[in-house]
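Each record in this resource describes a single protein on a pair of labelled lines. An example record follows, reproduced without changes.
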Amino acid sequence: MIFKKNLSGFIWFVFICFSFVLICEGADISGKNIVIINTSSLINKYNTAHKEFQARVPYQTFSIYLNDNKWQVSDIKALFEKKKPDLVYCIGTKAYMLASRYAPGRDLIFSMVINWRRLPLTQSTFGVSNELSTEMQILMIRYVLPDIKKIGILYSSEFNGEWFLQACKDAEKMAVKIIGISVPDKNKKLISLKKLLADIDLFWLISDPVIITDQETLIKIFKICDIEKKPIFSYNSALVQYGAVLAVSPDESTIGRQAASIAIDIMEKKNISEKIQFPAGTSIIINLKTINKYGLKYNEDMLGTMNEVIK
């Protein structure tokens, strides 16, 4: 009797321990699984979104890093056939393009993709945009720099034509005029910039492969604007070090959690009204050093809402 009682207690102990391991490791007992394709393990913001996503989804996950030489296309195709993932989370453009080609019919979620409208989208495509709402960004400019009335933008119609039209519509609501020049040839961007600066109060530097081709070009853009004392509003907080007066960028941790929320809704077959969503979290940096250098008026009450203030 004592042996049976002890055996029974031991079985319960093993069961509890096993359950604890499942909970701690986020193991999935539903049989559903997700493949995560990360374009590069060397990019910190990709890894941040990756880790947040993985920590939030209650399903088995398997990760592929495309910069790892052990992963050839044939290996990835074989993995899809073996795992038969219910969903693929793609971090970066390269990851999405690969998944859309070799995992047809699967639900795909993308994030950390610049100019997502260029992607081959399907009914099974979901994602978190890397671009923030144009309305929100213009509103931020107006609140922080109240004297800014005319905003200049260089863009390529191929990559940002639709985005530019939306920005113009949103600016009208806030009594702001956007003056844009469509640059068809990357060799004409600096000439176009010099022409644009004469008519604007602030230059909005957007993510466009025709405008920003390399670091040398980026430095030249900032130098030209600095000579004319035209402030730059940027999409990336890293550009504040070059002299941007204000930068509003998406928060990578929030993007990962947002993508996980979409994944859970897909798995639970819930209705998703917005298949491509704007980032829910932002990081805002203001550069008072450059603002004071140019003699710009700024809203001091907004400083408390900034993630970082450069003095």
About this structure: Confidence is low (pLDDT under 50) at residues 1-8, 10-27. The chain has two domains: 24-131+254-277, 134-249+282-310. Residues 75 and 81 are 10 Å apart (CA to CA).
